[in-house]
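Long-time lurker. I teach an intro course on protein structure, and each term I like to show students one example going from raw sequence to a predicted 3D structure in token notation. This year I'd like something fresh instead of my usual example. Would anyone be willing to generate the tokens for the chain below so I can use it in lecture? Attribution to the forum is fine with me.
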Amino acid sequence: MKHLSRIAVLLLLVAACQNKAENQSNTSTENTMEQTTEKTAIEKLLFSYRDALNASDVNKVLPLYTSDGVFMPSNAPSAIGQEQVKAAYEFVFSQIQLNIQFYIDEIMVNDNYAFARTTSKGSTLIHANKQTVAEENRELFVLQKTNGQWKIARYMFNKMK
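-- Reply from a regular --
Happy to contribute to a lecture. Here you go:
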């Protein structure tokens, strides 16, 4: 009888371990799928931003930022909040016309925050002298999920060459 009880306990333990392993596997798969979904949404945001830059369209840039977003361009003061961000992009677009591509190097997601490292390459038309010059930057985006949508919370870039 003791032998039979031990076998029953052993079988219950094996079954419990299998259920735990299956649950962990399911949770891992769900987390991976969620990460993939979030990264895809962030990629879409980044490419929308690229398109807005190439179109020199402030009205397409602003909705991509959080209400308290910060734009930190090279050799210029930081723009904080929608009003300053709008003014900064209006100034930039009055000076240059971008024609760039983004290359995503890394996206890391943690709950409602994420960061993305990108590089961009292309050309810039300088309106003042009508010259076109090569453009190559690296960028850091801090992103925040607000109301179910990923937005740019902080954005900084600098020249690679």
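Some talking points for your students: The chain has three helices and six strands. Residues 2-159 form a domain with the Nuclear Transport Factor 2; Chain: A, fold (CATH 3.10.450.50).
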